[in-house]
Design a protein that fits this description.
alpha/beta, 3-stranded antiparallel beta sheet, Aspartate Aminotransferase, domain 1, Aspartate Aminotransferase, domain 2, globular
Length: 385
């Protein structure tokens, strides 16, 4: 099969860490406060600017607190679980590996006896109508390893008694979140913003702050998780006075990406860019009989972590179908066309293509003929055998 003539200008389709913004160069970091204390006036001003500008771009309510925390989105989620759960029952929603991981932590590490897990297979959502909102509820907005997202926030009870704790790392800045329905929201810089790793963001509603100030868990909290001091919220953490030392290079990179986000139209522009990427793949899937989305309901299709699998129409044998996506990804990487697009190790065999806001739709369009080429190479090889 002949190779396509056009290649993606940017082959970085990894789902994390994700592609840098268009036009990014190392020179964008020349104003970084390297060698300076993050507690200096300059360091604190840069950290505070990330908090303030993130709130503005995302439309986070004024009475919500936002902090920069350690250990990426994982750190932000764990801080939330260990600091707030245990006050009441908890419903854990799982339909892919990250949600499963949070449920494992709650059941095996925190050992909460009043935890209930509502689960679904890859490609599906659990029964959202079965959620008990007298409980705390922990869920991912977008399943990064399944390409399945909750369709909206209509299923969340506005009069809930418990807290909603949402891992939104592959959704925030690319999807419209109903902040009034979310009490704790976490994300990281290295997903939608294409930033550098190890830094997380934690947003708290007034209800979440109240939980922190009125409830003390029965287990000890390490320093890295402590958000209160003397029974009150440690307000400094939410002004950029981080609990531990951040990378000032990564801070500068985040500031650069926020500048870019504003230049493309803020949240509306970022959502539009990601949706355009999904539209390219959706149009290609519609006319290609051997491929399909892993998500079974079109309303739950992710525009960021776009997960695909070989369809029943694919004429390859079952054995070849099980290995074909990873082999296709290997062929494309060898050609320098697309890097890191095999499905997550915990997910069913398939492809996972990042469609977040830092990806250009023109690169997504250039990728699809190469997907067909890599499949054709495998099919010809199988036919020859």
């Amino acid at each position: 099969m002949l190779m396509p003539n056009i290649r993606p200008a940017n082959p970085n389709f990894s789902s994390g860490p994700c592609s840098k913004r268009p036009g990014w160069m190392p020179e964008c970091l020349e104003d970084a406060a390297v060698g300076r204390s993050h507690r200096s006036a300059l360091g604190k001003a840069k950290l505070a600017s990330i908090i303030d500008r993130s709130k503005a771009i995302l439309g986070i309510p004024d009475d919500y607190r936002l902090a920069i925390v350690s250990a990426s989105d994982t750190g932000a989620v764990e801080m939330s679980l260990w600091s707030m759960l245990g006050a009441r029952g908890v419903d854990m929603l799982t339909w892919e590996s990250f949600g499963i991981g949070w449920a494992t932590d709650v059941e095996k590490q925190l050992k909460l006896e009043n935890a209930r897990v509502l689960s679904a297979e890859y490609g599906l959502l659990p029964d959202l109508g079965a959620v008990d909102f007298s409980h705390d509820v922990v869920f991912t907005w977008n399943g990064t390893t399944s390409g399945v997202r909750v369709p909206n926030g209509d299923w969340i009870d506005a009069n809930r008694e418990g807290l909603t704790i949402c891992d939104a790392t592959s959704a925030v800045f690319a999807m419209d979140l109903p902040w009034d329905k979310l009490d704790v929201v976490t994300w990281s810089w290295q997903k939608i913003l294409g930033g550098e790793a190890a830094h997380g963001m934690l947003a708290l509603s007034p209800r979440a702050v109240e939980r922190l100030e009125t409830y003390t868990p029965s287990w000890p909290l390490p320093k890295i998780f402590r958000l209160t001091k003397g029974g009150k919220l440690n307000e400094g953490v939410f002004r950029g006075e981080t609990i531990n030392t951040p990378s000032m290079l990564a801070v500068e990179d985040c500031i650069d990406t926020l500048n870019w986000a504003e230049s493309v139209g803020g949240l509306k522009g970022l959502i539009g860019r990601s949706q355009a990427n999904l539209d390219v793949i959706r149009d290609w899937v519609a006319k290609t009989d051997w491929i399909e989305f892993l998500a079974q309901d079109p309303a739950t299709l992710s525009s960021t972590s776009i997960c695909l699998s070989l369809s029943d129409n694919c004429p390859l044998s079952d054995a070849d179908k099980a290995t074909a996506p990873k082999r296709m990804a290997g062929l494309l990487e060898a050609e320098g066309v697309a890097y890191d697009i095999a499905a997550h190790r915990d997910a069913p065999s398939g492809l996972r293509i990042w469609g977040g806001s830092t990806i250009e739709a023109s690169d997504m369009e250039a990728l699809t003929p190469w997907l067909e080429w890599s499949y054709g190479e495998l099919f010809e090889s199988a036919a020859a055998d």
